[in-house]
Amino acid sequence: METFKFILALLCCLTACQWNLEEIELANAQATCIQNCVNGTCNSNNICECKTDWHGVNCDTPIANTNTQFCDTTNCNNGTCNEALNKCNCEDGWYGTGCLRTFNDRISTFQKVLSFGENEIKVDGIICTDDGGYLFTGYKHDNSSSQEQYFIFTLKINNLGLVLWESSIEVDYRWISGGSLLEIKDGYLVGSNDRRLIKYSKEGAILYEKRLEGSISLFKILNNKIYIFGHDLISNLNTNIWIANITELGEIIWSKNYGGSRNDYCGDVFILNDGFLILGESYSNDYNIPLNYGGNDVILVKTDFLGEFIWSKSYGGSKTDSGNSISLKSDGSFLLGGFTYSNDNNVSNNYGSYDFWLLNCDLNGNLIWERNFGGSSSDKLYSIVDINDGNFYLAGSTFSKDHDVSFDGHTGFFWLIKVNQNGEIIWQKGYGNNKRQELYNMKATIDGGFIMVGQQDRQDIYIVKTDANGNLYTF
């Protein structure tokens, strides 16, 4: 139990975009209502929020089940009910379904497309910054002239989605990705898969740029030490998972690699009390990866804090399986998220093409259960987020219109699913328009919502910022 508490504490400290629910709960607990909230709770604005089937100032008036009129079942606390529009007309300074929120504590939500002319931009890295904004990185392909150019692209926006600065650093070849970001005391570190490490000031000025021995997929920071995870090049143009401990100046203190004789990649990392749990994918079946079910499998590698290999596990079937995100459950086990094309061995079901794939494993990597979500077209899971409410939020893209996808889709859109501890769907939301949207990353935000980023029509940046229930508000 002490180990589990330590892991939870460490998770809260290390998740850059995680909001502090304990502080929020404490603040709510200190709220005092003049009214007696008989069937409800007192919120931070000292107003009773009623449970289902109750309304009134004191939440003591039952709602008759036989009456389905909006104004008979909704309590417009700081406003009047509009019967014609079935909504609350809130008084000045209040908003929300029941006029219970003030504009001072408003959660910012938005969705927007950022276009940069004829340039193709793919953003797959995101962090929430200490100033309340968001930093993104990825690649830019400029095909506006006869000489094509490729760049590592970095973008900073504020909490309302307004662009603050952008930066492009030219690279030698295509499909370079930024992908990894870390905020440190005097700036931001950006890592790319062409082995490039860049440091920016908070205002977007380049402070240094250097090349390392391995490609950078993500950063982690522990006890003021910076660790980078990615892959390095081995013989025959194949790659191994790579970990290095670096200084803030980008100098490598030590590095290690893991894998077999074929390609092995890092997707996500979780910090334990005794080392690192590295989630990724592998084509290998030798050396550190003793098993392969066919194609590329999801792999889980455990090391100590000095990078010494401890064990590895493989999961998947005879086709493509990818591991992208890892999260901790309240019972001390882990959720691994990615996508699968398989329907054999560890994969019990497939609706067709790629499905979201969610696996539950114990601390030793033993598989407890697995589930897939999706439809007959391609569905890819990239992020699992835990906001300490006992549930998990899965984000990716879907091109399906059947099976688990409960709303009519189009050519592709962002797909957000809320699941319980057993992986059962609680609700789902879709975001997009009549164009093609593909999500590549999601984080929980300091105000309790989610920030999602991806690509529209394989060219522009598409960003969605929601509240904790996946809602978008118009003010």
Write the topology of this structure.
Elements: H1 2-14, H2 21-30, E1 40-42, E2 48-50, E3 54-55, E4 61-62, H3 70-73, E5 79-82, E6 87-90, E7 94-95, E8 101-102, E9 110-114, E10 120-128, E11 134-142, E12 149-157, E13 163-171, E14 180-184, E15 187-191, E16 196-200, E17 206-211, E18 215-222, E19 225-233, E20 239-246, E21 252-258, E22 264-271, E23 276-282, E24 297-303, E25 309-315, E26 321-328, E27 334-340, E28 355-361, E29 367-373, E30 379-385, E31 392-398, E32 413-419, E33 425-431, E34 437-444, E35 450-456, E36 460-466
Antiparallel strand pairs: 1-2, 3-4, 5-6, 7-8, 9-36, 10-11, 11-12, 12-13, 14-15, 15-16, 16-17, 18-19, 19-20, 20-21, 22-23, 23-24, 24-25, 26-27, 27-28, 28-29, 30-31, 31-32, 32-33, 34-35, 35-36
Category from helices, strands and their pairing: mainly beta
Rounded mean pLDDT is 86
- The name of the CATH topology of the largest domain is Methylamine Dehydrogenase, Chain H
What is the strand tally? 36
The proportion of residues forming helix, as a percent range, comes to under 10%
Distance separating the two termini: 46 Å
Corresponding CATH architecture of the largest domain? 7 Propeller
Radius of gyration, taken over Cα atoms and rounded to an integer in Å: 24 Å
Q: How is the biggest beta sheet arranged? A: 4 strands, antiparallel
CATH homologous superfamily designation of the largest domain: YVTN repeat-like/Quinoprotein amine dehydrogenase
Unreliable parts? 2-16, 18-31
